[in-house]
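hey can u check if this looks right to u? its 172 residues, i copy pasted from the old doc so theres a chance i mangled smth
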Amino acid sequence: MPVRVRKTFDFSKMGTATPILVSKMLNQVASLFGEDMKRGVARQVDTQNRPLRPLKTATIRAKKRKGSIMPEKALIDTNLMVGGIYTSQRATPKNMMAVVIVPKGRGAARKGDRQKIGVYHNVGSRPMPERHFFYEPGGRDRKMPRLGKTFDILYKNTAEKIVRSAHVGSSD
């Protein structure tokens, strides 16, 4: 009796699909990071969901005098720094890196480089306390309570798509 073998998996298809699917996933991750950082500041919590240190009374008064949009909230003055967080570089199949940044600032915002101000707030400096709002995935943010489950689902779905891309239909 002859044995019949049917090919149901083609690794070359997987090799073609993987960079495309992974670059799409990286861009989704970058978007999630940016939006989550904005939501965290709006809720006044850091990347680990801990409350941001409240502003001192003198800081709130100074922000009111200069017309701040939300004088009692940390990290929100003109909303140029946090509101402007964006993906400056999108991942592609040939360059698997997406970059999320705080904008440098334009016009009136040039008084202070928003990126430098963001770093200053993120790590803290005497006399200002740390208000860690910007993710550092390879550093202190190995655990991401707000995004961890979402990322797990995204990674799993991408892996499943990669495997499905290599499946050969029953007619092959």
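Residues 11-165 form one domain.
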